[in-house]
Specification:
Structural class: mainly alpha
Strand content: under 5%
CATH architecture: Alpha/alpha barrel
Shape: globular
CATH topology: Glycosyltransferase
Strand order of the largest sheet: 1-2
Number of domains: 1
CATH class: Mainly Alpha
């Protein structure tokens, strides 16, 4: 009942004319434009994911984990078929490293993104995911959150994002016999998220997504959704920070969070303005350009994605953009025959 009440509350807010005036934006069929944008954007990500693994020697949030999630949504909508994001084989990484706290570069954030990607690809639980769950249990703080241990904004720099990703990992990959314990840990993480004070678009988005993934419900979700929606700019986009311009990273992420956690319909005026922003800002080569604000932590190399020093965050922005655009297309209905 609490869940139904939460959804109803959000729905009342979404259709309030004072907050979402559909008359401001004409209702147009964007399916053809969306299909072209998503196909072109994912094709470039697929190509560069192979290059990144070959030259970087590892998987990444921006070239593997986020593109895989976007690709999964596009497949559900029948927008792409056959494409794949190139990974190192998960089982090539030693499971023993996940049994030792402090042994994983990026800590819980890395593990959270990795299991986020596996879940998007519908990879089943196995001994490897069991080891990663063990690591997450060992690194959860007493107050319920997972602390970020790297400083590479916006992908990995805050506790809200790390906590949301990690609680989702426990929710999906809890081993048999550990479900009760993992559910308790998820509830602790959700309680921490409810009280968190987000200071950026990413933190607002992942607070909303994390509470949705935890099945938390309550009044905080409509409040979080309203706060995120209020950050939409006059150009239809969202910026990562107030002093920055709107970009595909902030916009795509905000739209995904508002739709999946805030129950914002893709037909809503705000969502359509965001989608239009993404369509207008995609470049002819299929990419979106996002300016980097992270300090380099490893030697520069070309990943096959455009935009030089901005290529990695641009790839992440393209993933969120493709994901948000793909959501505007109805999922393919599979035959029951």
């Amino acid at each position: 009942m609490r869940r139904l009440a939460c959804v109803a509350g959000v729905a009342l807010w979404i259709f309030c004319p004072a907050l979402a005036d559909a008359a401001d934006v004409p209702l147009v069929d964007q399916t053809k434009a969306v299909r072209a944008a998503v196909v072109k954007g994912l094709a470039l990500l697929e190509k560069s994911s192979s290059q990144f693994v070959k030259r970087g020697g590892c998987d990444s949030c921006h070239h593997q984990y986020l593109p895989a999630a976007a690709l999964a949504v596009a497949r559900q909508r029948g927008l792409v078929a056959g494409q794949s994001i190139h990974y190192m084989t998960f089982q090539d990484l030693p499971r023993e490293r996940f049994l030792e706290v402090g042994a994983i570069p990026g800590g819980a954030g890395t593990v959270g993104y990795q299991l986020f990607s596996r879940a998007a690809l519908k990879q089943p639980a196995d001994e490897y995911t069991d080891a990663m769950v063990h690591y997450l249990k060992a690194t959860q703080s007493a107050d319920g959150r997972w602390q970020n241990t790297s400083n590479r904004p916006p992908l990995t720099y805050d506790d809200v994002t790390t906590t949301a990703l990690c609680l989702r990992a426990l929710r999906i990959y809890a081993p048999q016999g550990q479900r009760t314990e993992c559910d308790r840990r998820v509830a602790q993480a959700a309680a921490w998220l409810r009280e968190a004070k987000p200071a950026s678009t990413q933190e607002r988005a992942f607070q909303l997504l994390g509470l949705e993934w935890a099945g938390a419900g309550g009044e905080v979700m409509p409040k979080a959704a309203r706060g995120l929606l209020a950050e939409q700019r006059s150009d239809g986009g969202w910026s990562q920070l107030p002093a920055m311009e709107s970009d595909s990273y902030g916009t795509g992420m905000a739209l995904v969070a508002l739709h999946e956690g805030g129950r914002l319909p893709v037909s809503d005026a705000a969502y359509r303005r965001g989608a239009q922003f993404l369509l207008k800002t995609q470049l002819d080569d299929g990419s979106w350009h996002v300016k980097s604000r992270a300090l380099p932590v490893q030697p520069y190399f070309e990943s096959g994605y455009p935009h030089g020093n901005d290529q990695w965050i641009s790839a992440a922005g393209a993933s969120w953009a493709a994901w948000a655009l793909a959501l505007t297309v109805e999922p393919v209905k599979l035959s029951s025959r």
